[in-house]
Every structure is written in C-alpha cells, then in structure tokens.
Design brief:
Layout: E1 10-13, H1 24-34, E2 38-41, H2 48-64, E3 69-72, H3 75-80, E4 85-89, H4 90-100, E5 124-129, H5 132-140, E6 145-149, H6 165-174, E7 179-182, H7 190-195, E8 200-203, H8 205-208
Parallel strand pairs: 1-2, 1-8, 2-3, 3-4, 4-5, 5-6, 6-7, 7-8
Amino acid sequence: MLELKNEDKVYVVTNRHLITKGTIYDVIEKCALIGVNGIFLREKDLSYTELKEMACELKKITDKFNIPLIINGNILVAKEIGAYGFHTGFEDFKSIVLQENLKSCQNKKVFINTLDYNKISDFVIGVSVHSIEEAIEAEKLGADYLIAGHVFETNCKPGLRGRGIQFIQEICEKVKIPVIAIGGINFKNLKEVLSAGAFGTAIMSSAMQIE
C-alpha cells in the first residue's frame, strides 16, 4: 500500500505500462492525493503529439495539487506546456548544453525543495547519472538536480546489481545540488536512502500500481 502524507520527499516516475487499474490520470491523481512531491512524466514510446497531449492533461492535475510536473526526454514539450522542468540522460544533457547554450542554468538557485510552486519561474533541468564522475560533470554543466541510481536491484532492470546506499552517499558528498535516488526504492528502505544524504527518492512500480 502506497502511503505518504509526511515529510519524506517522494517523486513519482510514470510508466503507464505498469498500471493495473485505471488510467495514468487516475493514478497520478491518487498519488497527488496521498502527498507525493512531484511527477516525472517518462513515456519514451509516445510521439511528440501524444506526449504533449498527455502532459497537458497531467499538468491540470499537478497544478490542482500545486506540485511540479517535469517532462522526461522532450524539452520542447516541457517548454510548450509550461512544465516546471525537463529531465534527461547525462549524454543527452551534454549535447543540449552545447546545442542550446544552457550553461546559463548554472546561476539558478531554485529547485523543488520549496512547495511554493506558484512563485517558481525558472525552467528546471535535471539529469540522470550513474557514476560519481557523471554527477560532478553534470553539476558543472549547470544541472539543477540529479537523479542517481539505480540504488537497489529492480524489476525495471532485472539482473543488474544495485549500486547501493554508499553510491548515493558518495554523490551527495561530491555535489551541492539536490540528489534524488532511484531504483528499487520502496517504503521499507526509503528512510535508509534519505539518511545517506539524498534530497528525495523516486519511485515507479509501487506508484503505478497504487490502489
């Protein structure tokens, strides 16, 4: 059972293929009701048009509950719908920095550590990292936050051993921007991850299967 309504920062990463009951909109509304801190729309198989339509509908929900909506993998959709931010992989982020001169993001100080969402105007950019070196470089290139993982073995990546709690701890010691841990995290091990210094945690499977 997915329960929240406390001070732990938990972010939901979408995967509509894991939903067992209702639609993605039903699931996100339920997650918002229990108190998640933000939504990452990550539906890589959708076309631009399909992703934009879904993002527009989800933004109605996230706006209602005053939580951030971050678009994964499509910066144009993120900008066009007025999303809180954009999330991408490390290599893609480096390409974007070169192509769009996003180094100006280095001066931004605001992140989703505030719930005063209505006053946030900066376009937040986050990066997924899988090593200490990537984390350090992403910060230097102007990332506002990192998603680091995978921490524990997960069904999303079967057979791949998790990097462990120490991996999160080391990244948090090396960078100053917020680090969100991901991979095999649930409400049994969430406290352990946060105690390692993570700003928050990201969950997928348990959120998509919320009752």
